[in-house]
Amino acid sequence: MNATSSDVAKHAGVSRATVSQVLNGYAERFAPETAAKVFASAAALGYEPSAAGRALRRGSSDFVVALLPHTTFGGNLQDLFEQMTVTLADHGYTLVLRMSGSAASTLDRMIAGMKPAAVFSLTPFTSAEQEVLRRRNVLAVDPPSVSAVDYNRAIGRMQGLTLVDAGHRRLAFAHLRDERQDPFGFAREEGIRDVAHERGLDDPQVIDVSIDLDSALSALDALTTPGIAVACYNDDVAMSLLAAARVRGLEVPRDVAVIGMDRSDLSRIALPRLTTIEYDIVAAASAGVASLLKALGAGAPLPASTPAFLSLIPGDTV
Amino acid sequence: MNATSSDVAKHAGVSRATVSQVLNGYAERFAPETAAKVFASAAALGYEPSAAGRALRRGSSDFVVALLPHTTFGGNLQDLFEQMTVTLADHGYTLVLRMSGSAASTLDRMIAGMKPAAVFSLTPFTSAEQEVLRRRNVLAVDPPSVSAVDYNRAIGRMQGLTLVDAGHRRLAFAHLRDERQDPFGFAREEGIRDVAHERGLDDPQVIDVSIDLDSALSALDALTTPGIAVACYNDDVAMSLLAAARVRGLEVPRDVAVIGMDRSDLSRIALPRLTTIEYDIVAAASAGVASLLKALGAGAPLPASTPAFLSLIPGDTV
DNA sequence: GTGAAAGCGCTAACAA
DNA sequence: TTGTTAGCGCTTTCAC
C-alpha cells in the first residue's frame, strides 16, 4: 500500500541512496533532471517516508512531544496546539500531545520508546520530569529555558507583594490538597516566604485546602490571626476559602484577604471579584515554540523581547 | 545509554531471539531458569524496547492515537485521558493525543509515518477522518463502536427530564459560547428538544453563554419566560447564570431553574447547591479502553453490563 | 553525480 | 528448548 523509498527509486530509475539524498534537502548535489525525476516519482507514488525506518536509522524520531498542562483547555490553547502542529509539520516534525499529569514513569517509557526530537511544556517541568528528560538526554523546552525565571517563585512573590502593598501584615499560603503531587506549590510558598522576610514580617502560616466546603471551613478556622491575608495556590482554592468565609460571616478583605492564581473562567464571575494573577499561556507558548524551533536547529526568528507572562488582575478580595 | 536486546542477550548469555520471545509473552516456551535470566538481565540493564525497531519489524507501532474533541477540555476529560494513558501503558500501548481539528491531511501524514495500532476518538469520526483511516487501513474506535448510545443526547434528555419532573414547563438550553463549533452541545440540545416534544412542551429556547458576568447577564435577560428552566452545557455555564440571577435579584429555582453538567469541583462548593449530572469518566474510559483493547486483540474482558455513565446529583437549583 | 554496502533494533520463520 | 538467519525502511559513508 505505502510506497517505500525503493519503490520510488525503481520508478525513477535511480538508487535508494539518491532518493534519500534528494528528498532530504540535498537535491542540488545531483543533476537537475535526476532530482526532478525523483520528486516526480515520489509524488506519483504518494511516497511518505516511514517514521520507524528513519527513527531507527537516525536514533531519534521526528516526534515532538508537548506536555499538556493540567488546566482548563479552552479555545486559545487548542488554537495554539493546532498552530504548533502545523508549524512543526512545516519543519518536518510531528507534534503529539501528552497529559503532563501522567506519572513520570510512563513519560520515561514513552521517551525511551519513541525517542522524540524534543519535549515541550508550557509550564515548567517538574523535577521528576526534568530528571527523566536529562537522563534520556532529550531536548527539553519549557518557559524557564525561554527566560530562566523561576515562575512559580515569582508567582508567590507577586502574590505576597500584592498583599503586603495592600497593607496586610500577616501572610499565609494555602496549598491545594490533592492526591496528585503538587510540584508548583512549594516554590510559590517560598515566594511568599521571601516577601515576608524582606518586609520583616512573621513567617507565613501554611494551610492545605481541598475543593469542598468542609475542608475550606476547617482550613479557614485554622488560620490563627484575624485579618490574615492568604495567597492561594489557585483560584479554586481561593474561591473555596471565600465560600467558607461567607459561611463564617467573615468580611473580605477586612477579616480575611485572599489572592488567587490563574484567572480561571469562574473567578471572573465571582462576587466579590477575586484578585488574582494571570499566567499568559499563549504568550508563553509562542515564545516556547520559537525557542523550540531554534533548539531543533530550524531557523525561526526569536521574538525580540521576552513578554511578561504574569500579570495582576485586580479585584476586591485584597 | 539505552540497553538493546543484544545487550540483554549478552548479559543473560542467550540469543537475541530468546530475549525477544521471553519478553514478548512466550516465556513459557523456555526453560524457567532461562526465562528468569532474561527477565533479570532486562531489569538489571533497564532495557526498554525500541519502538522504532519494533514498529519497523512489525509494520505497525504500539502507539494509539486519541483524537481530542473540539470542546472545552476541563478536568474531567483530562482525567479521562490520563486514565487511558495508564491503562493502555499497562497493555504495552502508548497513548498520544492529537487535535482532531487539524486538517485531515496532517492526520494522514501522521498515520502514514507513525503507523499507529489504533486511532481512538470520543466523538464520531468525521467522514474525512473515516476516509483517511479506511485508506490507511488503521483500526478505528469511536463511540458508536463502543455502544449504540449517543451519550450527549442522553445527557440532554436527562437534564430535560429532571427539569420537567420537577414541574418546569418551559425549557431552555444554554450553550457554552465558543467561536468554534462544539460537537457535544448540539447533541445535548437535541436531547432537551426530544423531551420537550415528548412532553408536549414548546420548543426549548436556546442561548449562548460565555463564562463572564456580562455575557451571563445578557443571556439571562434574553430568556423570555419567567420561571424558565435552563439546561446548561456545563457547570461553569450554570454557575455563570446563577451569578447573573443573583445580580438580577432572581430567586432560584422559582424565577429561573438551572441544571448543570459535569459535577465540577467548584460546583460542589456552590451555594445554592447546583443540581447537576455527573458523567462517570472512569467508567467511560474503561469501557472505551476495553473495546479498544478488544479490537487490538489484547484479551481484556469486556465489562459484563454497560455501566450507567450518567447520574443525577441533586441540588437546590431545580 | 551516483550507487553499493552496511547497519540502526527488532522479531518471526525456520533449523538445530 | 534455543539459536541462526533474514529483513522491515531508512540514511550515510565511501567508492566509483
TrEMBL record, chains A, B:
Single GO MF descriptor: DNA binding
SUPFAM superfamilies with a match to the protein in the record: lambda repressor-like DNA-binding domains (SSF47413), Periplasmic binding protein-like I (SSF53822)
Record flagged with keyword Transcription: yes
Keyword Transmembrane on entry: no
Pfam families attached to this UniProt entry: LacI, Peripla_BP_3
CDD domains per UniProt: HTH_LacI (cd01392), PBP1_LacI_sugar_binding-like (cd06267)
Record-annotated HTH lacI-type domain positions: 3-58
Protein origin, superkingdom: Bacteria
Entry keywords, A to Z: DNA-binding, Transcription, Transcription regulation
Official protein name in the record: LacI family DNA-binding transcriptional regulator
The organism of origin for this protein: Microbacterium aoyamense
